[in-house]
Write a structure and sequence with these properties.
two-stranded antiparallel sheet; alpha+beta; two-stranded parallel sheet
Amino acid sequence: MEIAINSKSDDMYMNQENLLEITSLPENYENVLNAINLAKIKIKEHQLILKPISTINLNEENMLKTRNLINALNLLDEVQEIYTNCIFSKKF
């Protein structure tokens, strides 16, 4: 995908749904998006996300505590987004 490379993207890879994911620094987001649109490539979804530089694996006890905290925060009207660098090995 030469278009993404020339528009200052950082990385490209195929995700689990067999779709191409392109990452870039926030300041390059518009350049990458515009280059793809100009090339008339269909975009299924695009968004800015915060991706942690480092992650942490939790033991089961801390995983449960963290999940409970996130669930409690989600119930608050004032909270719009929640970010974490934790990796949850089990689904709740």
